[in-house]
Amino acid sequence: MAVPRHILVIRFSAMGDVAMCVPVLRRLLEAHPDLRLSVVSQAAFAPLFDGIDRLTFLPAELKGLHRGIAGIWQLFRELQAAGPFDGVADLHQVLRSGMLDSLFRLKGIPVSVINKGRREKYALTRRTQKHLQPLPSTFHRYAAVFAQLGLPVDPESTLTSSVRDPSAGHLELVGRKRIGIAPFAKHQSKTWPQERMRRVVESLSNRGDIDIYLFGGGQSEIGILSAWANDIQGLHCLAGKYTLAEELHIISGLDLMVSMDSANMHLASMFGCPVVSVWGATHPYAGFLGWGQDMSNVIQSDLDCRPCSVFGNKPCYKGTYECMTSIEPELVLKKILTTLRLD
Predict the structure, then answer these.
(1) How far is CA 136 from CA 61, 140, 242, 250, 285, in A?
(2) Second CATH level (architecture) for the domain 177-339
(3) Domain spans of the chain, in order of start
(4) DSSP for 207-249, written as a single string
(5) Does residue 183 contact residue 197 with C-beta atoms inside 8 Å?
(6) pLDDT at 1
(7) What is the secondary structure of 63-107 as a DSSP string?
(8) Sheet hosting strand 256-260, strand order edge to edge
(9) Per-residue pLDDT tens for 252-305?
(10) Residue 330: which residues within 8 A CB-CB, separation 6 or more?
(11) Superfamily of domain 5-148
């Protein structure tokens, strides 16, 4: 019997990027039955990997025990104890992961590091003479890391079993369409104006055949979504009420997620849930569209200034955020109903 190979996978923040690992890792494990994986990431992200056979989650406390150089050394010692490893796959390529890479290399362990394609992404987002063409997806960039370790994987292959749970708990009436609405993102340039999303939510609620679940986090978002739920019939505010594991269970039973270019798009994609996504300063061509999502469900404006950012963390140089304000509620509503086949 072949000795199982054991690979350490490094991917810290942010949640959306960590969630994007999941489809690739599942396909990797299915393609290589003798493979074991250990994934080190922020402790809060452990539920993303629940139920995956031959995968062990190793929590990192990057703001606590594993903070700074001394903390990375402590983390390295803990990771060594979880081994031995036959290889290290660095899916992050930041200072923290680079320090771990160097320490494992000193131990003679092969290390493969993601190519983020920074030059290509700069050409895509620069203010003038943009090179507007699709770049390799993050899923393919992740897959390339494992290929360098002798573990080829097709990130778009179909699994033999689905992780989706259409009978997920906490959902309301059977037979009604179940929609998740995640109207927020980390940056203004990735967030559609609140009043426009509220108009869409009100229109959906008025139909009477849809249950709507609101997703968000942080006191400001919880306050806004709670107010929506109080004012509009048929809304269920989940923000601040459930753990990540519980939210994932709910997401697994949705018929559709409506989100920005944000983590919720990737959480829904983990379960094969269709997503209608609204994009502003960023663009799917940068490689961050959710796994298995259809470009026809992407809503974006065709502006010469787009995209102006890979991650949406730059303020609008025009000051207008036209990329978001030019998108009308009627367009988003129509796309939702068409995707659900309710038009």
Answers:
(1) 31, 6, 35, 31, 8
(2) 3-Layer(aba) Sandwich (3.40)
(3) 5-148, 177-339
(4) HSSEEEEE---SHHHHHHHHHHHHHSTTEEE-TTTS-HHHHHH
(5) yes
(6) 38
(7) TTTT-HHHHHHHHHHHHHHH---SEEEESS-SHHHHHHHHHHHHT
(8) 235-237, 210-214, 177-182, 256-260, 275-278, 298-299
(9) 999 999 999 999 999 999 999 999 999 999 999 999 999 999 999 999 999 999
(10) none
(11) Glycogen Phosphorylase B; (3.40.50.2000)
CA distance 9 to 104: 12
Q: What is the DSSP letter of 189?
A: G
Polymer length in residues for the chain: 343
Task: Round the CA-based radius of gyration of the chain to a whole number and report it.
Answer: 21
β-bridge mates for residue 6, sequence order: 36
Q: In this structure, what are the phi and psi dihedrals at residue 99, rounded to the nearest 5 degrees?
A: -65, -45
Structure tokens at 287: 């490689």
Of the candidates 99, 107, 42, 37, which has an alpha carbon nearest to the alpha carbon of residue 74?
Answer: 99
d(CA 10, CA 25): 12
Q: Identity (one letter) of the amino acid at 84? A: P
State residue 334 phi and psi, 5-degree precision. Answer: -60, -40
Task: Kindly report, residue by residue over 23-63, the tens digit of the pLDDT.
Answer: 999 999 999 999 999 999 999 999 999 999 999 999 999 89
pLDDT at 86 over 80: yes
Do 5-148 and 177-339 come out as alike in CATH topology? Answer: yes
250 near 238, Cβ under 8 Å? Answer: yes
Q: Could you read off the pLDDT of 109-153 as tens digits, one per residue?
A: 999 999 999 999 999 999 999 999 999 999 999 999 999 999 999
CA pair distance 34, 29, nearest whole angstrom: 8
